[in-house]
Write a structure and sequence with these properties.
The complex is a heterodimer of chains A (494) and B (211). By secondary structure, chain A is mainly α. Chain A has helices spanning 2-5, 13-24, 38-54, 64-74, 79-93, 104-120, 122-138, 149-157, 166-179, 182-200, 205-221, 227-236, 245-255, 262-272, 280-296, 306-321, 330-333, 341-357, 359-380, 389-396, 403-409, 456-460, 478-493. Chain B has helices at residues 25-34, 75-78, 97-113, 141-151, 167-189, 200-206; strands spanning 10-19, 47-56, 59-68, 87-93, 123-129, 155-158. A 6-stranded mixed sheet of chain B has the order 2-3-1-4-5-6, with helices on both faces. Chain B is globular. Classes of the chains: A mainly alpha (494), B alpha/beta (211).
Chain lengths: 494, 211
């Protein structure tokens, strides 16, 4: 956390910073404009930059400014709470690659949504399809994109923050945090149902788009949709989880491939970025960062990390077995968030490539792998050497237990050992790091020891269910939501 | 081709507005369509759409303006909206040289993804936006003319969405070019056969791409 917020600049920051700065006043929220907005913009920038540093493979995506602005409003300007909520939302609640990898998962969801529209609102769907076909014919058989796409894209990427009034948006967000990303589909279906009549009057695609121009304005400014009614629709349209949704998502994940393979995309995206992954230091920083932040930062969010830690546990076992047998591919899996899988895949494939060409590089890689494994093992090691992280973790797999946070957050990690940091003058709490990286950030792996177990932001957003301090949670079916809130943890653990 | 055959002649043109993030694409469209400027708006997420209706002599021109997000990662999502465009604005920010450097990239991308029925490139106008901010290009006018010639722009304008400078001029200029190329296409396509008079450069450019 401290790393992501630190004042020192990273090589990536320049181009990232420009993109972020250009969007700071463009959140659609007037408090970020003009001279009075200066302070708010500074805070917003810090949060956006912090997220981009936290998850480099996602970085900054246009639309994050809108998300972060709303989150900051709910956390009343508390940056680190806002960051945590943002990480939880983007890395855990929404599908992976919603905002990265050319927004692959988003395009999957756009296709899935069209199928759901056909199932739930067949008349409207057919009408839209007809308009699209006519437009195709007029364009000489050229491809006309499905008409709902530009709206689905905007609605899903900002979770409706740019198209509905704030009170409605907050209700939808509460519901997304409770029930998962499927709420986006439900809300979109509810909206289209409401708009349906006026759209069925449109005779051409052009007319549809201009009608939608007016309707989106009305939706935003005039409460065209009553929030309570909308939420009623969201909950009553289908049982949870939405029937067929998982299958459809899977189907399109494998069927939509006008895109290059993940690893390729990653390389391309990053080659165009300022730094790319051209150095191992880069990857090291990433891993260190994610370990520290995963424990220090996400720790308060309870059992979220279970799958990662489970995977990590496996690695520790492998390591204990025989380090030399470790495949280079194993490096990536350790304690990284699932949102980083692509990144790891790219790093791994890069490593593989190098190894096949250079035997000395191979040796070096193994050394590096070993070192990193040791570093990570050590970080998870609690002072009493007997209590290995693996042992803690076993008990941690119990869903209701928050022991790991308690145990890990309460203690300092062991300081770096000389064996792999020869001649280092670093002070003990510093994490061991690969020696010669000049831009190695100085951060403590457990910077947030005294963090509250439950973040205020998450509570405000309804992560732990409505409380008296939660001004924005007004569920129409409060009892139902409360029942579900106990299951919210389960959603997160998935 | 069908749009031109109504009784009251009405043209429907699809126009793209592209360029780097934050150069002012949306502001230009808002100024042109809604006659407003505000720094309080939101960044374009993906693609946006606006319609401007012009009275053009005795005819009506409906301009579909497609506002394409500037961030690179939206590329795969937004490029499908290039198709069937008849014209484009490529916008850069006179206060940020990198956005001008990106102009060539945007132009190449455009030309590789959309082309007229006769295989020619669509009419594209270069807009040097934010000229209210004190950095004038006028001194470089000749160089800019040459740049446009070299890279296939039909012209360029210094614009300011804030001060409402040159925006409708630029749009009229683009519409004029679109109409001219439309006439060209009608002439060359209507006979529906390859005419021997067709000039060689045209034939070369894309006879193989026709489907």
């Amino acid at each position: 956390l401290r790393f992501t917020f630190n004042e020192r600049s990273n090589p990536d920051d320049d181009s990232l910073g420009i993109q972020i700065v250009k969007d700071l006043h463009r959140t659609g929220c007037s408090s970020y404009c003009g001279q009075e907005g200066e302070q708010d913009r500074v805070v917003l920038k810090r949060v956006l930059l912090a997220y981009a540093r936290w998850n480099k493979s996602v970085g900054y995506c246009q639309g994050f400014n809108v998300l972060a602005a709303l989150i900051l409003e709910v956390t009343e300007g508390n940056e680190s709470d806002a960051l945590k909520v943002m990480i939880y939302l983007i890395d855990k609640v929404l599908p992976e690659s919603y905002f990265a990898n050319n927004l692959r998962a988003l395009s999957v969801d756009m296709a899935v949504f069209r199928d759901l529209l056909r199932l739930k609102l067949p008349r409207l769907s057919q009408h839209l399809h007809h308009l699209q076909k006519v437009a195709n014919r007029e364009a000489g058989g050229n491809y006309e994109p499905p008409l709902t796409n530009i709206f689905t894209m905007q609605w899903f990427l900002t979770m409706f923050a740019t198209c509905l009034p704030a009170p409605t948006v907050l209700r939808i967000w509460d519901s997304v945090f409770f029930e998962g990303s499927e709420v986006l589909f439900r809300a979109a279906l509810a909206i289209w149902e409401r708009l349906g009549e006026r759209i069925e009057d449109c005779q051409t695609a052009d007319e549809f788009y201009s009608t939608m121009g007016g309707l989106t304005q009305e939706m935003l400014e005039q409460n065209l949709l009553h929030p309570a009614q909308l939420m009623q629709d969201v909950y009553s349209m289908a049982p949870f989880p939405f029937p067929q949704l998982a299958e459809l998502r899977e189907k399109y994940t494998y069927n939509i491939t006008p895109f290059p393979t993940a690893a390729k995309v990653n390389t391309k995206v990053n080659a165009s970025g300022p730094s790319g992954w051209d150095s191992e230091e880069d990857a090291d920083v990433d891993d260190d960062d994610s370990v520290a932040a995963a424990l220090g930062c996400l720790g308060p969010l309870g059992g979220l990390l279970a799958p990662e830690l489970q995977r990590y546990q496996k690695h520790l076992k492998v390591e204990q077995g025989n380090i030399a047998e470790l495949s280079p591919g194993a490096v990536g899996g350790a304690a990284t968030g699932s949102g980083r899988a692509e990144h790891q895949a790219a790093v791994n494939s890069m490593m593989l490539e190098r190894m096949s060409t250079d035997i000395t590089a191979l040796k070096k890689q193994y050394g590096r792998i070993k070192r990193r494994q040791q570093q990570q093992a050590m970080r998870l090691c609690i002072r009493t050497d007997k209590c290995l992280a693996t042992q803690v973790l076993a008990s941690q797999l119990n869903p209701s237990s928050a022991v790991i946070n308690h145990l890990l957050l309460g203690r300092k990690p062991r300081g770096p050992s000389r064996t792999f940091r020869p001649g280092s003058a670093g002070s003990p709490p510093l994490p061991p790091s690969s020696s010669s990286a000049p831009r190695q950030p100085l951060f403590s792996p457990f910077p947030s020891i005294k963090q509250p177990r439950k973040s205020l932001a998450a509570r405000n957003l309804g992560l732990y269910g409505p409380t008296s301090r939660t001004p924005t949670v007004h569920f129409p079916q409060l009892s139902r939501s409360l029942n579900r809130s106990s299951a919210a943890g389960a959603t997160g653990r998935r | 081709q069908m749009g031109g055959q109504n009784l009251r002649k009405e043209h429907l043109y699809k126009v793209l507005v592209i360029g780097d993030l934050g150069v002012g694409k949306t502001s230009i469209i808002r100024r042109y369509v809604h006659q407003t400027f505000s720094s309080n708006y939101r960044a374009t997420i993906g693609v946006d759409f606006a319609l401007k209706v012009l009275n053009w002599d005795s005819e009506t021109v409906r301009l579909q303006l497609w506002d394409i997000a500037g961030q690179e990662r939206f590329g795969n999502m937004t490029r499908v909206y290039y198709r069937e465009a008849m014209g484009a604005f490529i916008v850069f920010d006179v206060t940020r040289p990198t956005t001008f450097e990106a102009v060539i990239k945007w132009k190449e991308d455009l030309d590789s993804k959309v082309m007229l029925a006769n295989g020619q490139r669509i009419a594209t106008v270069l807009l040097a936006n934010k000229c209210d901010q004190g950095r004038e290009l006028s001194n470089n006018g000749i160089k800019m003319d040459q740049f446009c010639k070299d890279h296939g722009f039909v012209g360029w304008f210094e614009t300011s969405a804030k001060d409402n400078l040159n925006i409708s001029d630029a749009a009229n200029f683009l519409v004029k070019h679109i109409m001219a190329t439309e006439n060209d296409i009608l002439k060359s396509v209507v006979p529906d056969t390859i005419s021997p008079q067709m000039d060689s450069s045209r034939q070369m450019s894309c006879s193989g791409c026709f489907k």
